Amino acid sequence: MKERFSKLLLGEDMSGSGKGVCTAVTISNAITNLYATVFGHNLRLEPLMPEKKAMWKREMDCLLSVCDYIVEFIPTIQTLRDGTTVEIMTSRPRSDICINLPALKKLDAMLLEILDSFQDTEFWYAEQGSISSNSNRSGSFRKVVHHKEEKWWLPVPCVPTEGLSESSRKQLQQKRDCANQIHKAAMAINSSVLDEMDIPHSYMASLPKCGRTSVGDSIYRYMSSGDKFSPDNLLGCLNIASEHEALELADHVEASMYTWRRKACLYHSKPSWTSVKEYIMETGRTDKNHTLAERAESLLFCLKQRFPELSQTSLDTCKIQYNRDVGQAILESYSRVLEGLAYNVMAWIEDVLYVDRNTVNLQEE
Questions:
Q1: pTM of this prediction?
Q2: Both 41 and 175 in a single domain?
Q3: Does a structural domain hold residue 193?
Q4: Which of 185, 240, 260, 358 could connect to 144 by a Cys-Cys bridge, CB 3.0–4.6 Å?
């Protein structure tokens, strides 16, 4: 315990020369590294090993205990013995931590409960390209794993030759739906925490002077033409082929959004003695910048809805890197790793259901 907190306070710089990162980034890295240590090699639907489960709970309790001392002061009326009332400042847990941390702990427990429920299952796993040595569990699973050939390191789910039983199939679907709700909740908390983080000056300084140059001429023309704007139609026209392209587009759209917002704020900050002619011209420009910023925001939201597994944008990464608020760092990293775990559980369940559907179809043929 002393060693871990010493490293946190030193900002991962054990030389003591003051070259380490701040405490917020250190704790964020600690939660991320702990998640990688505990869940990094877990690639299948099975209970977590007891020692790893104990490690996760023990060390997360240690890291989350910092939140007990992050408080805010509020005025409170106190009555003295002689009957007089005075106003004093009392402390309470900070509102964002008080709301989000219990919710994250609940989501954490639910995910572990889902993993613990996968005991004595009807499905099993084999290494990619291998054949099960159990004659009672030999099936045609090798014919239906083509969708995972690019991920050769992942184990292959296998089902009996007749497929899963109806009860087992329903249980899997229910657990997938539960994991999906957990994923949405964790993603919502993560987004809200990132929204509350300050935008670093380095990011604002790196923004292009013109939002059009960031999104490109074709997207800009679509966003600036007409009174009606449909982000779904625009994304449909772009034909995004990969997650990498989606992330690149998200970075460009987000940069243009803040460029237009900054321009709108600059125009609003003009002094009151500006001439009427300039005021009228700037009002039109402000309305245009405001509209473009709103459309860019809706496009970014729609893009993230289409690609729920999308990595963090450049702005999100920059916020985490320059964040100095320890409470926000804990909430962001905790929700991020739970979001990733929930998404993995969904994907693993979907893989099993995919193999089951193909096995049943082959039997019907």
A1: 0.81
A2: yes
A3: no
A4: 358
Predicted confidence band of residue 140 (pLDDT cuts 50, 70, 90): very low
Residue 87 sits at φ, ψ, to 5 deg, of: -100, 125
pLDDT by residue (tens digit) across 44-78? 999 999 999 999 999 999 999 988 888 888 898 88
pLDDT digits (tens, 9 = 90+) for 7-17: 666 666 666 66
- pLDDT (tens digit per residue) in 155-186: 889 999 888 999 999 999 999 999 999 999 99
Q: How many residues does the chain have?
A: 365
Domain that residue 80 falls in: 2-182+327-364
Question: Whole-angstrom Cα distance, residue 258 to residue 314?
Answer: 13
- Main-chain dihedrals φ then ψ at residue 27, nearest 5 degrees: -65, -40
Q: What is the pLDDT of residues 315-344, one digit of tens each?
A: 999 999 999 999 999 999 999 999 999 999
CATH number at residue 354: 1.20.58.2010
Looking at residue 365, its pLDDT comes to: 63
Structure-block tokens of residue 319: 């916020």
* Integer Cα distance of 330 and 326 in angstroms: 6
Could you give the number of structural domains in the chain?
2
User: Has residue 94 got a pLDDT over 70?
Assistant: yes
Q: Tell me, yes or no, whether 76 and 146 share the same domain.
A: yes
Q: Is the pLDDT of residue 287 over 80?
A: no
115 and 94 housed in the same domain? yes
Task: Give bridge partners of residue 138 from the DSSP assignment.
Answer: none
